[in-house]
Design a protein that fits this description.
The chain is mainly alpha-helical and 344 residues long. It starts with a helix and ends with a helix. The chain is built from 13 helices and no strands.
């Protein structure tokens, strides 16, 4: 069914603005949850319960002076944060938010996600190089090595999902998980090793603790964005939180049923009028957001639970543990699919 252009434009406008708003909400959520974990109140001055604090921070960044090192490359220094934001905002275009509610339902949607997330490493590397600072350069080089190392395992985890679903289409992957009873058809139950690998590599790809080596304030001052200020720094901040939010969407979409409502077949069977209704679509959106909110909380929880890896530990984990496990998992899933088709 061809989706009208105006409907696609409306969904794109809503999603784009919600992604920008989500960054502020995530900043507030992280500071509040971090405060509770550390037995302190967190922000509580600006607005009710401190909710307006992120917006005050954005306003402050708008009026801060844009300082650029004299020896920096001006064009690349300005291009890097823009590249990061554009890439972060582009990934949600292929993520279905409910049945039939997607901006671009392209055939090879999974490949689009992997391609766009791979481009973000260029933004970090260019930021580190263009600043002409040793701390920034080290952060950029660390990020490039880290992302290349963990993208291999992430790709293998996605391949295992593609083998199960038999399609590269993101909506097709979500609908394939509707086959089992209740939630047992979700890929996290059919492919638990792939789910764990993808979640771990998502932490590394978004530079979140314990994989935040590219920033590593104690070692590199601030890493690749040490020489940034004002809204250029704000754009890096925005991209980081949107990437974190988008990573949660991708995890849920590939392994946790996406927009599928738990026990949805039983609901539709009990209430036939729900099938294809706006109410069911709203329930699917709420289901997706609830799952994503859990993983957003998980990102914060892990940050204040696990210490940062040393760089040699980071590389050993990626190349000597996760990559071999990913390869074995793909082979086992492929053999399992062959056996299943032989006896089905």
């Amino acid at each position: 069914m061809d989706i009208p252009l105006y409907w696609t434009a409306i969904v794109a406008f809503v999603v784009l603005n919600l992604m920008m708003l989500s960054a502020s909400v995530l900043v507030y959520a992280e500071r509040k949850v971090s405060g509770y974990i550390q037995l302190r109140p967190g922000p509580d001055r600006v607005g009710p319960l401190g909710f307006l604090q992120p917006f005050a921070d954005v306003l402050k960044l708008l009026f801060k002076e844009d300082i650029r090192p004299f020896s920096a490359n001006p064009f690349v220094h300005s291009l890097a944060p823009v590249l990061m934001v554009v890439v972060a905002m582009s990934v949600p275009a292929v993520i279905p938010f409910a049945r039939g509610v997607v901006i671009a339902d392209v055939g090879p949607g999974v490949l689009v996600i992997l391609a766009l997330t791979s481009i973000s490493v260029y933004g970090i590397t260019l930021a580190g190089w263009s600043s002409n600072s040793k701390y920034s350069l080290l952060g950029g080089l660390r990020s490039a090595a880290q992302m290349i190392s963990y993208e291999l395992t992430m790709g293998l985890a996605v391949v295992s999902v593609i083998l199960l679903a038999g399609t590269l289409n993101v909506t097709g992957i979500v609908e394939d998980q509707a086959g089992g009873w209740a939630i047992l058809g979700w890929n996290v139950f059919r492919n638990p090793v792939g789910a764990v690998l993808f979640v771990v590599t998502a932490f590394a790809e978004t530079n979140r603790a314990p994989f935040d080596l590219p920033e590593a304030e104690q070692e590199l001052v601030g890493g690749y964005h040490t020489e940034y200020s004002g809204m250029k720094f704000g754009m890096f901040f925005l991209a980081e939180y949107v990437n974190w939010w988008v990573a949660s969407f991708v995890i849920v979409t590939l392994f946790f049923g996406g927009y599928l409502v738990p026990f949805e077949p039983l609901l539709v069977q009990a209430f036939p009028e729900l099938a294809g209704s706006i109410l069911l679509g709203a329930l699917q959106v709420l289901s997706l957001l609830a799952k994503v909110a859990f993983f957003a909380f998980l990102f914060i929880w892990v940050r204040w639970t696990l210490p940062r890896f040393k760089y040699n530990q980071l590389m050993q984990l990626g190349w000597k543990v996760l990559l071999p496990v990913g390869l074995v998992n793909v082979v086992l899933v492929a053999l399992g699919m062959i056996v299943f088709r032989m006896f089905s």
